[in-house]
Sequence to fold (335 residues):
Amino acid sequence: MGKSFPIATVEHPWATIVVLLAAAIVFGLIPLSLAWLWARLYSPAKPGMQKNATYECGLEAKGEAWVQLNVSYYLYAIVFLIFDVEAVFLLPFAAAFSGLSMAACLAMLVFLLLLVEGLVWACQKGVLTWA
Amino acid sequence: MDQDLKTELSKHGIFATSFEELYNWGRKNSVWPLTFGLACCAIEMIATTMARYDLARFGAEVFRPSPRQADLMIVSGTVTKKMAPQVVRLYNQMPEPKYVIAMGACAISGGPFRDGYNVLKGIDRYIPVDVHIPGCPPRPEALIHAFMTLQEKIGGQHLTGESRPRHLQRELPSEFPVPEFGEHGLEPAQNDEVFRNPLKVLQG
Fold:
């Protein structure tokens, strides 16, 4: 009775992922290559000035793409920072408040101070008064 | 393949088809129209897409807001001379294969506004129209009928040979000249390569 030699299958822990990745790439490439082949065989590409135009609502593009915005919109930018971006930072700050180090807390307070300063400044400018 | 043979085979549970048929079957059941309405006909077009008439049954409910993703332009309504260049430009921006349905009296001839100084007497003066629908406005059923007619037309197109459609022929253009505003309306008044003048057709 001879010894049995099992075939050693040394499987890398990431082998499945590699196989899946390869399958995913092939799965994506098949329709792309079929479309390319189809275009080569039957349907010729017909680019043109209007077909390749940037604007696609029927009107012709006018002027430069580098449009300059009016500088007076800086007020909106500042108020947006104060009321929107600050809120986004405040929520995680509040959630992690008890576990924060002194340095992180100080950094956040400096950030808040800067924005409060902006708020006071905007208030003095009269941005926050309606009617 | 012979049609009789195909029918005979299908009786025995064998489905035979050709590349061309498969291609056309896919194309005709996924025609995406352009989100594009010009006048009151557009309301009927919108009704056609809604639940009561349900254009989705024909695979055409996906109205695309960009001409780059659309296959079909439904010219639904009066084309004013101010709008005509934009319509032609939108058509030019659609990728091949592309089709046009001229919906309603205005789109096919100018309709009741034909004598107006600012109304184009039919969009077929500038772009090739595949299906014309008469009516003012045509009912949604008429649009569905036009749609089915278009599907028949797509189904009958050949992949190879002399009679194959424009999008498969390299030398035929995919863009058509855009008219410009002249002193007396649009110039040129029509694209002679596209427009078949009914008077001249009648005279022979």
